[in-house]
């Protein structure tokens, strides 16, 4: 099925998989979803990701992380900020701090996809894609 908003699709699949306590979830592989998966792994929200399949049927398999005996998910909330019909841009000085620094904002900058902290440190702004905590 074709989708216009691959980022919202990815966030929804992760949200649904964590609510159902699944160990892994599959997401269609694009440059954007690979970059977001890399940021999520670097920040410790997912354990790992790998690309499977060939051609148009490529998928990213994300291994989700849980903590404790109750298997509480590491990711509690995923919120899409910039949407196809409403783009949200921010300068490096105005980048939002998610929950006072506990969460992250994923930002699409001229230097690539990065967290709000990395963008502030690099002195670049861009499109605020989503919040995760």
Automatic annotation (TrEMBL):
Record's keyword terms, sorted: Ribonucleoprotein, Ribosomal protein, RNA-binding, rRNA-binding
Q: Which GO terms describe its molecular function?
A: rRNA binding; structural constituent of ribosome
Q: Per the record, what is one GO cellular component?
A: cytoplasm
* UniProt-listed Pfam families: Ribosomal_S8
* Domain of life of the source: Bacteria
Cross-referenced SUPFAM superfamilies: Ribosomal protein S8
One Gene Ontology term of the biological-process aspect is: translation
InterPro entries noted in UniProt: Ribosomal_uS8 (IPR000630), Ribosomal_uS8_CS (IPR047863), Ribosomal_uS8_sf (IPR035987)
Its annotated function is as follows: One of the primary rRNA binding proteins, it binds directly to 16S rRNA central domain where it helps coordinate assembly of the platform of the 30S subunit.
Protein family according to the UniProt entry = Belongs to the universal ribosomal protein uS8 family.
Q: How does it assemble?
A: Part of the 30S ribosomal subunit. Contacts proteins S5 and S12.
Q: Give the matching HAMAP family.
A: Ribosomal_uS8_B (MF_01302_B)
List the protein's name: Small ribosomal subunit protein uS8
């Amino acid at each position: 099925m074709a989708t216009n908003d691959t980022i919202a699709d990815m966030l929804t699949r992760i949200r649904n998989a964590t609510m159902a306590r699944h160990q892994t979830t599959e997401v269609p592989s694009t440059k954007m979803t690979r970059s977001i998966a890399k940021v999520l792994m670097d920040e410790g929200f997912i354990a790992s990701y790998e690309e499977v399949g060939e051609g148009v049927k490529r998928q990213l398999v994300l291994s989700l992380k849980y903590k404790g005996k109750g298997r509480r998910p590491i990711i509690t909330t995923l919120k899409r900020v910039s949407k196809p019909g409403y783009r949200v841009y921010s300068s490096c000085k105005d980048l939002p701090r998610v929950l006072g620094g506990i969460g992250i904002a994923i930002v699409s900058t001229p230097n690539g996809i990065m967290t709000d902290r990395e963008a502030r440190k690099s002195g670049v702004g861009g499109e605020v894609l989503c919040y995760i905590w």
